[in-house]
Amino acid sequence: MRLSITHTKNNTYFYMIKSFRKDGKNTTKIIECLGKLDEVKEKANGEDPVAWAKRYVEEKTKEENENHGTYFEKLVEGVPLDSSQKVYNLGHIFLRKIFEELELNTLCKLIKKKHSFEYELSDILEDLICSRVMYPSSKLSSFDDAKQFLRQPKYQLHDVYRALDIIAEEKETIEQWCYDKSLNIIRSRNTKVLYYDCTNYFFEIETEDEDDLENNKKGLRKYGKNKENRPLPIVEMGLFIDGNGYPLAFNLTPGNTNEQTTLRPLEKQIMKDFNLSTFLVCTDAGLGSFSNRNFNNNGNRTYIVTQSIKQLSQEYQTDALSDIGWRLVGSDKSINLSKINKYDSKNKNIYYKEILLKRTKKDRETNERITLEERMIVTFSPKYAAYQKNIRDAQIFRAKEIIEKHPESYSKLPQNNAKRFIQKENITDDGECADKYKLFYNGKLEKYEAQFDGFYALCVPEKMEADIEDILKISKGRWEIEESFRIMKSDFRARPVYLRLENRIKAHFVICYLSLLIYRILEKQKLNDKYTTDEIITTLKDMITNKIEGIGFKQLYQKSDLSTDLSSNYNFNLDLEFISIKNMKKILKF
Q: pTM for this one?
């Protein structure tokens, strides 16, 4: 800071000012008005006013330097407000740092050389990821939201849409790069266990995409079985995550694709691109077709697949539900389930039995007959049985109430709720078929469903020698992939998708995938799983700073354990009252 003396026709004014650069030009800012000449003489108390003023400025400058950025600015009432932006978000810095640790800026430079475009792909991709985590919306809104970040966009909106085409084209390169670089960041990337699942995303459009018959290519947005029961075209997404919950790779298929056929192509891709050959695939019954099990029963690959007891043959089903042959997890003692209260909600024990299966089925794709020999681990939980019974009892109560009091509401009921316990018969007064109908309670269905309460089954190859406890522990980890889909759908608002062209839809999900990967690294690696998704995203959004032109940044958020833990991973601290422009540039490196 330095002293500035301004002479007017009627008086002389003393100012403490500071020089800085704005928009590439040198400018100054008044930090404090020391007063008119008479006022300064009074403060100087007999000393030369200029000498006193210089010494005052030197003392304040020294104090500023000693306090690493403490600034002195006198607020003067009546000064007009200018139109420059003053409030920015700081939370994106932590997402940006992980972006840099994955060396995605280097990858973007390599992609730029390959495709020869003018805009900075790295800036666009980084802003799209930060916006997806913190302010999820359309690409147009993401472009506007990026202006809340300290580094302002130097690209245009049309550059964003052009970048989407490049991102889609380089999808597999991006996945492979992220996997390789993540090995240097993540302490324990467990690729010995891989979880796979599918979900779908809807589009608010009236018609599905047409097929390109000339090139034998199916349209992407198709009507299919929507998991949210929306009558809209969808796309299907298959996702692999590793044993510690970090996303590995994904694929997109038309919405009417049988999800069982999506596993093997993506699995072959990660085997090739990530050089993986020894792993266990864990998935649910809907994806555990005989073909998929047979594929993973080769080489050094194995699988754990949930098994529907209802779909077993009568012989195996009877054996699975029998009261004899059970053991308590962690014990070899034989237990008869008839000796315990099967609906004791306070009994948290898990009982199990193992059954050897040998089944032969035809592969729907190749018509080849496949024989699999498997270990089926059946578990029983009294607490889970009580939970299932309570849900069913509530549905039965509702069904009986409808039959007795509100039969007209029968046609409006969803099939999987109380409606399944209601039997409908169309009759006339003479007992003949007609438009009139009567409703009856289906007690046989209650009895049928009750026999499965508390039971759960898994299938693994017979060659797999893992302990029961290890198998159950791995299977229990499937919640991580379900949570990953929830984060993308709810927190990152991956749907509905506001894009039309297939390449750009694909790019949208690449951005969602990268956002999930960076978020998981932040949550698990940097914050050690101490905080919830809502706590993390809310804290990132709340980390607001006020930029004081030419001076620095004054923080406007409340310090918390989470904000402190975020900074603890790096050699800087944002939990300060004030950060100078010089130090902020060191943090951001721009």
A: 0.85
